[in-house]
Design brief:
The strands form 3 sheets. This protein has a 6-stranded antiparallel beta sheet, with no helix packed on it. The chain has a two-stranded antiparallel sheet with strand order 1-2. The longest helix has 7 residues, at 24-30. It has 2 domains: 1-48; 65-155, Thrombin, subunit H (Beta Barrel), CATH 2.40.10. A hairpin with a 7-residue loop joins strand 7 (102-105) and strand 8 (113-117). It has 3 helices and 10 strands. The protein is mostly beta strands and 195 residues long. It has helices spanning 24-30, 37-41, 180-184, and strands at 2-4, 11-13, 53-58, 65-67, 78-80, 91-95, 102-105, 113-117, 139-145, 163-168. It is 9% helix and 23% strand.
Amino acid sequence: MSLDTGLGASAYSIPASSKKLDLSEELAEIIRTDNTALISRIGVGGLMATQLKHSWVEDRLNANTDPLLEDLDTTETGIDVTDYTKFKLGTLFKFNDGTAEVCQVTTTPSTNTLTVARNYGLSSTITPGTGEAHSNGATIMIITHNKQEGWKPTQEDWTTERVGYYNYLTGMGYGITISSRRQAVSHAGVPSEFA
C-alpha cells in the first residue's frame, strides 16, 4: 500500500508483508497544513488558471443492471424484470449468478416481460436453443444495446443527459496581526516576523 502526495513529493509506502491496515501514523503527514503537494501542482507545466469560473461536463451513465423477478427455467423465453425501459430491441445481457449464458432481447420491450432468445451465440456449453436455469433475484447485467437493421440516430438512447458542473477559483489565506513592538524585538534565528 502506498500514498503518493503529488508530483515531486514524497511517497509513503507500507510493505505488503507487514499486512498493516492502520494508517494513523501516516495520517498526520497526510493532513499536515504545510504539506503543499496539491498547491505545488497548480500551474504545473506552464498551465495557469485563466478565469475565475471553471466549468466541465460529466457523463452520467444509464443503469446497466436490473433484477430478475422470477425463477427462470432452461426453455422460458419471457423474462420478468423491474424496468423494461433499460432494455432495447437487440440488447444483450447475462446474469451474475456464475452462469455463462447470454440472452438477446428479440422484440421492442413495452412491458416488464422481455421476449428473448436464450443462449445467444452459443454462449453456454449447453444444447443450442436452450438456456441455463436462473433464480429469482439474480442480477441481469446489460452487456450492450445492439443496433438493428434500419436503426436511425434519432432512436439513440438519450434518457440520461450529460450534466454540467462548475467551481470558482478563490484566493485563500490566513491573516495574522503583528504589532510594531513585536517586530522590533530581536529573536534568535528570526530576522523578521514577516519572514
